[in-house]
Design goal:
8 helices, 192 residues, binds adenosine-5'-diphosphate, Rossmann fold, five-stranded parallel β-sheet, single chain, alpha/beta
Amino acid sequence: MINIVLFGPPGSGKGTQAHNLIEKFNLKQISTGDLFRYNMKNDTDLGKLAKSYIDKGELVPDQVTTDMLVDEVKKPTDAAGFIFDGYPRTANQTAELERIVKEVLNSEISVCLSLVVDDEILVERLLKRGETSGRTDDSNEEIIRNRIKEYYTKTAEVAELYKQQGKYVKINGVGEIDEISQKLFAVVEKIK
Ligand code: ADP
């Protein structure tokens, strides 16, 4: 299996690149952000809980996020592996993912692909996305800056953990979408 952690701050292009990677390598994408938005749209209990954090630009607590992820990983699939998009976002989630991938899939994380984008470009991109996405968390600069702050205080350390395992690969997330995809493809080809 190829199991990719797609990593990077909000607005770094994880969703876009995940889309290209799943097509190229026949992978299944699990986006915790998409799963939360699906629950919010359907007004489930989980959606209501998630909304109270997401609308402030804060992370949803680890336990509910991890439970939601496990349910997805357990669903049968004929994909060649997974792309984890937006998970892990904390050190605790990183350890949980390792355990889940081992226990449920009898596999391991192959690589952490990290999209690097300057903060001011992130803010610009997210405000622009907010004009059409309808996402409440893209709607104002204060919430966006809080998401970036959460990234540095809670999520950035995830990178350190994958670095220690020799699984961390940085890719410049600024440029043409296809050009960035080609760089990601090249890394995955090498580890396949
Ligand atoms: P972005 O990468 O643009 O921030 P996402 O769709 O990945 O967008 O996430 C949107 C929001 O959902 C996050 O700001 C956070 O509140 C919540 N969320 C998503 N994934 C996680 C996670 N792994 N742990 C905690 N909260 C999460």
